[in-house]
Structure of Cytochrome C biogenesis protein CcsB:
Amino acid sequence: MKILIPLSLAAMTLAAPSFAAGDAEAGKAKAAICAACHGANGIAVIPGYPNLAGQNEQYIVSALKAYKNGERNGAQAMIMKPQATMLSDADMANLAAYYANMK
């Protein structure tokens, strides 16, 4: 048991960068193309498309990565995969920070 605590702490420390928040201002600059479907204020302009304003940051990142990796095959996958493919991990984190900070 004594060894598990230090190992757990070490694992959490190593994983911490993956939980680091992105740069919301950089995300705002990158979000112009997203606005076509998700709205300039993060409220979707197309029925059935998700609102991104106030969405959980980690969820946005995981959703974008899943689209990029072909792990999501739902109705919007044909639209989202090409968009997500153009994004780096930093871009995804920045977009997520931008939308998560919206009200």
